């Protein structure tokens, strides 16, 4: 079977738009609460330094591999892997990589849209003054009531999914690019506005110390594993997104420098979000919490106690929603691109069909917080926890590991040299060591660390 080398959905109009799109995919809900929290809890500045090392030797090499494969294949992840497997004379089983990435993206979107719907709801709640001078009990009760109401959760889940599918249905130039042109600059502006507000709150020194004071006493092997896991997951690796976006990258763009720019933007957002969030938490004497508790209980409470808190709280949840949308649209692209090119289908119809499927699948997550909360069919996990574990902790690291191995050890070196624009044998040797040995070993370590408790516990 002959696979076309021309993307059916066009190209990014510039390298910079690809950078913004890929950064938008990487910047999501996890950047805004997870990175700042785990940095503060795992050595502050020491953790940030370790994280940057892990990004350099694990995250960036795998992203380079994905983008390189995507640009060479000029197709969806499934057809890209099919084409490159043929060129490399490798076993057809490598095509499984493309299928796994597409499936992982669909699974993640199904529950990501539910959580992102909460952020849309909180724009309204914060703007309407729900948390103005509110007690901790009001913040907790408001969040609990949302989770316990399946109809309300379905409504916000539906709203977020409609926005996402409307954007991706319009294609690369009219949909993805148009959204990125607006959302990413606005996201950066809103983040800087919040950062300025946080600096003036009176708790900035505490927030800075929490994230950046070097505390080597808590650093150990586990710290490195946590940093490697964060470096991998925050960059949207292993789900086919970067391969799908890479198919639209102009041929004259330098992949290495482009990926480093994406990584820098992603890290900047994570650090700036922490410096915007934690001073507000500390100035109000609140507990630093991880996950939804921080974003949907602690922060609304903090904004409610501060002058102009309703305004800046609304700005914060708009920012969170923008970050969620840019990530969500990237999760759809691998699946949509495959169906469009395989069946010559109209993109808008494929996008709507995928949206309906993800919406239906997302109902399992909605019900996991209320009417199905006690239904735990496998391994003591409810539907949401099961889908999360399968996609995030199995499919993504496995996909990233195999992508790195394929790009370095299976794909002909001539293709890698051409795509990476490398002529030096020394540089190629370094690429093979970092991309083909260090990065896979880093992902494998995280993989083993994640599942070792299941076997020894």
Description of the molecule:
By secondary structure, the chain is mostly helical. The chain has one domain: Amino acid/polyamine transporter I (Up-down Bundle), CATH 1.20.1740. 78% of the residues lie in helices and 0% in strands. The protein is built from 18 helices and no strands. Mean pLDDT is 88; it is low at 1-8.
Could you state the order of secondary-structure elements as H and E? Answer: HHHHHHHHHHHHHHHHHH
Q: Strand pairing plus helix content: what structural class?
A: mainly alpha
CATH names the topology as Amino acid/polyamine transporter I
Shape: globular
- What ranges have pLDDT less than 50 throughout 5 or more consecutive residues? 1-8
Helix content: over 70%
The CATH class = Mainly Alpha
What's the count of strands?
0
Summarize the structure.
The protein has 457 residues and is an all-alpha fold.
Write the layout of secondary structure elements.
Elements: H1 15-26, H2 29-41, H3 45-73, H4 77-88, H5 96-127, H6 136-148, H7 150-168, H8 171-199, H9 204-212, H10 221-234, H11 241-246, H12 255-283, H13 292-305, H14 309-343, H15 347-368, H16 383-410, H17 413-420, H18 425-456
Helix pairs in contact: 1-8, 1-12, 1-14, 2-9, 2-12, 3-4, 3-10, 3-12, 3-16, 3-18, 4-5, 5-7, 5-14, 5-15, 5-16, 6-13, 7-14, 7-15, 8-12, 8-14, 9-12, 10-18, 12-13, 13-14, 14-15, 16-18
